[in-house]
Amino acid sequence: MREQGFWSRLWRKPSAGWRLGIPLGGLLFFVLGAVGTVGFNVVIHETSSDAFCVTCHGPSKFAAEEWPEHTHYNTASGVLVTCADCHVAKEFVPKMWRKITAMKEVYYQTLGTYNTREKFEAHRAEMAESVWAEMRETDSRECRSCHKVERMDFARQKKSAAAMHQRMDKMGKTCIDCHKFLAHNRPAKPEQGE
User: Chain centroid to CA 167: how far?
Assistant: First the structure.
């Protein structure tokens, strides 16, 4: 008869210490998982707050200081749109991708690429084009998380807006193609001869 291996014997006749280790190990695994999950969610939530966004997007709040002057801040319905509402996806995978790709912004901030008003304005058009391109790629996913074309009351819109909204898909357009300056100022046009 063949002699049983160590693992086989241990599993069939566990000692009292081994039996106690299973529930304690399970409890430790559960506690670490819960702490990790809560910690992860707190970090994701905090890095999507306006206070966090402003820390990088302008020590003097260059991007944030113009936001209260635009329609997505002073809404007729009283709804306050935050930075994350427009710049961070709601779904998990796209949200995580945005968090990863935002590291380039941290890198540029660390380098001081746009840490003064002049540097910020010099890069404004480039930054805006980058955001608009991302929004076009996702068919303005963040806009559509609040604005549903299929639920719009076209009779209450201006005729030109209603006409555009009704045929934007057929025209190959998305929200950002017409609504670029709802929260931020228009980039300055480059000087002639530059």
Answer: 28
